[in-house]
């Protein structure tokens, strides 16, 4: 641990992952997009990453808004569901208001997030030098080999994304997504009467509550696209329910 935190050096085995592809349920197995890549990582690395994740998790609840309930201590999706139901009941009692729920999902979210963007968020959170060095070391150089039919491919250099299978990955993802969520909360162009219930999130599944949706949805999508260019994420599967 001292080698990583003080000298920014890690064993070579820590930087390499074997990726196995898990088929998604009820999809066409002939399409590569219908497989989920899971990283098989060195056991010592996962132990070290679990220690860092435990430290990070204790801090995140103070940094991430209560409308995000994915991967965080003492937060559950039932709170998102209850708030959305309450909001629907409120607008049902006020039919004069035009309202929409916009549902969004991120395309291969864990695979595409920018390391540079992620490390900027870490710097803004004010962690100590040793913790920051450890994270920077982990995300400065990574390689992967894909396991297909029992055979490994040649090594592939990785320059973005978080590894599915790493204890740190879900925490980094909700941290980087909080930047978008905070922009939406503070954007006065997307105001509604239920200001405290502007959005709900569970990891990368987002629900936005919009008044005057024909106008506000365009502004929201513009903001999301701006965020995607900076963070390296593409948010897709936009669905609206009026």
UniProtKB/TrEMBL annotation:
Q: Which InterPro entries match?
A: DNA/RNA_pol_sf (IPR043502), RT_dom (IPR000477)
Q: Which PANTHER family match?
A: REVERSE TRANSCRIPTASE DOMAIN-CONTAINING PROTEIN-RELATED
Q: Where is the Reverse transcriptase domain?
A: 3-242
The superkingdom of the source organism is: Eukaryota
In terms of SUPFAM superfamilies, this protein maps to: DNA/RNA polymerases (SSF56672)
Q: What is this protein called?
A: Reverse transcriptase domain-containing protein
* PROSITE patterns the UniProt entry points to: RT_POL
């Amino acid at each position: 641990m001292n080698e990583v935190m003080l000298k920014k050096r890690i064993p070579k085995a820590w930087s390499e992952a074997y990726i196995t592809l898990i088929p998604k349920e009820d999809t066409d197995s002939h399409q590569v997009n219908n497989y989920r890549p899971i990283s098989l990582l060195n056991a010592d690395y996962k132990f070290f990453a679990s220690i860092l994740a435990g430290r990070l998790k204790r801090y995140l609840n103070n940094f991430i808004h209560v409308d995000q309930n994915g991967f965080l201590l003492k937060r559950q999706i039932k709170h998102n569901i209850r708030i959305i139901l309450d909001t629907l009941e409120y607008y049902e009692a006020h039919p004069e208001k035009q309202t929409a729920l916009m549902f969004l999902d991120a395309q291969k979210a864990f695979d595409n997030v920018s390391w540079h963007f992620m490390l900027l968020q870490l710097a803004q959170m004010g962690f100590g030098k040793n913790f920051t060095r450890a994270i920077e070391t982990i995300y400065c150089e990574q390689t992967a080999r894909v396991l297909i039919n029992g055979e490994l491919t040649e090594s592939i250099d990785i320059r973005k994304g978080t590894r599915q299978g790493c204890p740190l990955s879900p925490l980094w993802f909700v941290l980087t997504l909080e930047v978008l969520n905070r922009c939406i909360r503070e954007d006065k162009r997307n105001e509604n009467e239920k200001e405290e219930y502007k959005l709900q999130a569970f990891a990368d599944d987002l629900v936005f509550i919009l008044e005057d949706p024909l106008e506000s949805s365009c502004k929201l999508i513009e903001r999301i696209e701006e965020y995607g260019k900076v963070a390296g994420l593409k948010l897709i599967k936009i669905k609206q329910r009026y």
